[in-house]
Amino acid sequence: MKLLTMLNKYRIAVVLAIIFLLMIPFVTMIFDFAGTEKVRHEKIGLIILGDTKINGWNSEHYNGIKSACEKFGLELLLREKVRENSGECPLAIKELAEEGVGMIFLASYAYSREVKDLVREYPNIAFATNSAEVHDNNLTSYFARLYQARYLSGALAGMRTKSNVIGYVAAMPNTEVQRGINAFTLGVQRTNPNAKVVVMWTGSWQNEKVEAEHAKRLIKEAGADVLTYHQDEDATAQVAEEFGVDFIAYNEILNGYSDHYLTSVVCIWELYYSDMIRRYLKGELNSIDNHWLGIEHDAVMLSDYSPRVSSEMVTELNSLKQELKNDKLIFSGQIYDNKGQLRCENGEAISDDTLLENINWLVKGVEVLE
After folding, report:
1. Integer Cα distance of 25 and 65 in angstroms
2. Do the two domains 40-145+271-293 and 146-266+300-368 of this chain adopt the same fold?
């Protein structure tokens, strides 16, 4: 009996040893995966169009995401000066993937179309893009409701203009840019129904020479006495300063200008990137297609006003801002485009999905100078 018991114990020990040996690869895999997950979560990638050392769109995004990463104890891996539609963005994604990032921000409009097929090759990486026109299981959109601050800045421009002509230097006629122009123009019309907005396209996010030429034409040919712009840098502001014309800046707070610098349309990108990274770390990032923060979260606003902005103007702007915080929809009620087509009827509002993905028209009151 004792011999039989010993044999049974021996058999059990042998079986357990075999099971243990068979389990080693799986246990190793689990620990390796856990380690990989930890590494992935600790690295965030940013791909951006321009030089993050130059003030403007690129520096504001970089400083915002850098602060957010520091808050969460994450490492930021940067790929800057990555040209759109050049093949450089896919290469940057592959490099960042090899370095073990768990999330990549694509911080320029055209990147998402260029890499829409490539992101599927990296299902374990979460992607977020500035453009809402492309989505996938691991590709979501993030942008600020900058059009709300554009609306307020348009209201200010409408109050400031004497010629009733406001110039707008704009990159290209895509949804993002045209949404901003339309909101700005609706703001102008709120305070000055007699004013018009004259747009000139540069065809590029940053081209200081062309931007300056267009700004001068808007002043000299169109008669604009207030300028604004949708570009990555402030060439338009420099021309306005040179000609003694009021201007409203975009996406950064400028220094060294006169009181013709009325205000800036700005986003608190650190707040936005913190929100996105928090969602990523909780595994919620790709649960919805579009992340869109606005004035109700204090994510977008106008910067401090110039002394040229009277107390009466500030009161009016504060009133309009409160309307937006109380859920007033800018793109609601009867809206015609500048070709005479009805785009929104009384009692209706343009949906967020349309605003994000399909604004291919300009509102009544906008003219394009060729």
Report:
1. 39
2. yes
